[in-house]
Design goal:
42% helix, single chain, alpha+beta, two-stranded antiparallel sheet, 365 residues, 4-stranded antiparallel beta sheet, binds iron/sulfur cluster
């Protein structure tokens, strides 16, 4: 089975500092990536966002301290001891854990078995904000179970993609993911189970495959998890634990067939990063994807784009009764798509700014 190496992810690659030992070692083995990665190395959203300085001065501080909050949550979880008086659990406790996750703020929660290959093989050094230098450190498979959850993003903001509101939505969701994950991890430690949470600053494993295993959705042409109810307008979080409870199974609501007809993320992607050619990884179907092309759009727009999120009919809402019929009546896919395009066009692209970043809103106009 293939183990992902976080050092091969685009974010780890473009964070490498040119001509350091780590840089030289990586590109000695991956020469074909070097020129494009060099052109995209170490940029900041603030530098490239096409807004004037006063806009940036006013609105970038909205999320500036998110990483500091996440760092404190991370330290709190690390510091907390595992209660030596463990409370035994049976499989049925899965149902409680799901409700507890929602009580803490998750939109949906699923539970998956962790195999050795579920983990990244090595850290990619993306935890600087936690004051951790872990580049190249091997990740040991310490936990047995992943509690995976989704957090819904603000649709009004996502429908402004690729503008600044989209970035506000994703940053906010990453913070919520960390809050929920840390609370769940601390709760499980209180019950006597070793636990740690994944967050935007610290990943033990790629989360899309685990979210698929946990039955939270299917993998769409955009390579994101697509949920039946909210599409890919969700961010994923996880808690890794040695608690063993009942596991969920993958679901099949017909997304593979739907994507073949739809392709709206592909046709709307401004950088041609999305591809309809499938690839299989550890028995799960993904799609070809050009991460450098996608990142080029981030650098161009000064946000993490998100057009493939606002383009997805499931993000805007799909009639669930019709959706449940598509396995028996595949013609329903065309019907759903026709209705979607009639309502939103090829993508819901709302142009006017939201009040939160409208400068006139300060004066009440
Ligand atoms: S984020 Fe934008 S550029 Fe990247 S794949 Fe999605 S639509 Fe394409
Ligand atoms: S936009 Fe269409 S093709 Fe892309 S993931 Fe969503 S349903 Fe699939």
């Amino acid at each position: 089975m293939k183990k992902y190496d976080e050092r091969e992810t685009l974010f780890s690659r473009v964070s490498l500092t040119k001509d350091t030992q780590q840089y030289k070692e990586f590109y000695k083995k991956n020469k074909e990536l070097q020129i494009t990665d060099d052109s995209q190395r170490q940029f900041s959203f603030r530098d490239v966002l096409r807004k004037d300085e006063s806009y940036k001065n006013l609105f970038f501080p909205l999320t500036k301290n998110n990483k500091l909050i996440i760092q404190n949550l991370f330290d709190m979880v690390k510091r907390q001891h595992v209660n030596p008086n463990r409370i035994d659990m049976d499989n049925g406790f899965s149902a409680n854990i799901k409700e507890i996750g929602k009580y803490y703020g998750a939109t949906s929660v699923g539970i998956a078995r962790l195999n050795d290959y579920s983990y990244y093989s090595h850290f990619g050094g993306l935890s600087n904000s936690l004051n951790i230098d872990n580049y190249g450190e091997e990740i040991l498979p310490k936990y047995k179970t992943a509690i995976i959850f989704t957090v819904l993003m603000d649709k009004d903001m996502i429908n402004r993609a690729p503008h600044f509101e989209e970035l506000l939505a994703t940053e906010d969701a990453y913070l919520k993911v960390a809050i929920i994950g840390s609370r769940l991890a601390m709760y499980l430690k209180e019950l006597g189970y070793k636990s740690m949470f994944d967050c935007s600053e610290y990943y033990l494993a790629p989360l899309v495959p685990l979210a698929y295993d946990a039955g939270l959705g299917e993998i769409g042409m955009c390579n994101h998890l697509v949920t039946k109810e909210y599409g890919n307008n969700v961010r994923l979080g996880a808690v890794f634990t040695d608690l063993v409870i009942g596991y969920d199974k993958p679901i099949d609501f017909g997304l593979k067939e739907f994507c073949k007809e739809c392709k709206l993320c592909l046709s709307n992607c401004p950088s041609n990063a999305i591809n309809s050619k499938t690839r299989e990884v550890n028995g799960r179907q993904f799609y070809e994807f050009d991460d450098n092309k996608c990142f080029g759009m981030w650098i161009n727009s000064g946000t993490d784009c998100g057009i493939c999120i606002s383009s997805c009919p499931f993000t805007q809402g799909v009639d669930q009764v019709k959706l449940d019929l598509i396995k028996k009546r595949p013609e329903m896919i065309k019907k759903i798509l026709e209705e979607h395009i009639q309502k939103y066009g090829r993508r819901n692209n709302t142009k006017n700014s939201l009040d939160i970043v409208k400068r006139g809103a300060r004066n009440g106009d």
